[in-house]
Design a protein that fits this description.
This protein is mainly β and 299 residues long. It has one helix spanning 2-22, and strands at residues 31-45, 58-73, 76-91, 98-113, 119-129, 134-139, 146-152, 158-171, 174-187, 212-229, 232-243, 252-262, 267-277, 285-298. The chain has a twelve-stranded antiparallel beta barrel. The protein has a two-stranded antiparallel ribbon with strand order 6-7. It is flat and about 70 Å long. Residues 15-27 have low confidence and may be disordered.
């Protein structure tokens, strides 16, 4: 796990170094600045009964909403980023529609510049959850019938992190926030922790019958976005968290890469890749990858 962590950090640091040379953003004016984007991706594959190469007819769709609303007044800045992402896929002959993506996130950083440097005093708040129920799909051995078992739902889990720190910021496209004193709360629905066979820690680290868990640790968040070439941009987001109270060496990792190829003002191709390591949720990396062609509207 540590090798993965070092590898990811080296990638982001390389990107940050490159971005620092290639992306120089002019100082923004005081006041509010907003920017939003709505993107839809659609994937479809169809095979008739005579197709011999193998394959299953399916259709999938994904909607992503990003909205930034930032404020600046002299040396004081407030940066807010909201992300909503939801996707479904329907596979032929499968009883249930399945989710391909489901998350919401709000990240806010209040910062005050230290003299004329790129360093700031900071305070951050981060919220993460999902919109819809999540299921595990299994087959009944005797009948081969597929059933689904609910594992997550809205606000179960939900994460809130907050704490003071130090921010290094070259621009809105390149920054690193370090918060060595971070409080984190994890919230879940008690239906997932009330079962007779439930053992402490099985569901996102919570004890039997509990609906919340408090952690105290440190976090680092990095953001780097730059243009590879005309109409091709690469966005990298990395969040690290260590719980000082329990197994501090087990660092939670959440890395997201978004590669976008812009065809014109409304049409683009997007590759999204996300890797999550959180041993309270599952032992090992959770990997998500989405590639699609769709419509984009910027406002």
């Amino acid at each position: 796990m540590r090798n993965y962590l070092l590898y990811i950090i080296s990638i982001v640091c390389s990107i940050a170094s490159y971005s620092q040379q290639k992306n120089v953003e002019k100082d923004s004016l005081d006041g509010w600045k907003t920017q939003g984007k709505v993107a839809t991706l659609i994937n479809q594959a169809a095979f008739n009964n005579n197709w011999q190469g193998g394959g299953t007819t399916n259709v999938a769709g994904n909607v992503t909403i990003k909205f930034e609303f930032n404020y600046r007044q002299g040396s004081l800045t407030l940066n807010n980023r909201f992300l909503a992402d939801y996707g479904l896929t329907k596979i032929k002959d499968k009883k249930f529609t399945r989710k391909t993506n489901d998350r919401m996130e709000l990240n806010s950083v209040l910062s005050k510049k230290i003299k004329t440097t790129n360093w700031y005093y900071s305070y951050f708040i981060n919220f993460k959850s999902q919109f819809d129920k999540g299921f595990r799909f299994v087959k009944i051995p005797d009948t081969e019938e597929e059933i689904r078992i609910e594992e997550t739902r809205f606000f179960s889990p939900a994460y809130i992190q907050t704490g003071p720190g130090i921010l290094w910021k070259k621009s809105d496209l390149l920054y690193v926030n370090m918060a060595p004193i971070t409080a984190r709360m994890i919230f879940v629905d008690n239906q997932f922790t009330d079962g007779e066979e439930y053992e402490d820690g099985d569901y996102f680290g919570l004890d039997k019958g509990e609906t919340s868990r408090f952690e105290f640790g440190g976090s680092i968040s990095m953001y780097a976005k730059f243009t590879i070439m005309k109409n091709i941009s690469l966005e990298n987001i990395l969040n690290l968290y260590s719980n000082y109270i329990e197994e501090a060496y087990n660092i939670d990792i959440d890395y997201t890469m978004n590669l976008q190829l812009k065809v014109n003002k409304y049409i683009s191709t997007t590759l999204a890749f996300q890797a999550i390591y959180d041993d309270n949720a599952t032992r090992g990396f959770q990997i998500r990858e989405i590639l699609g062609f769709g419509l984009t509207y910027t406002f």
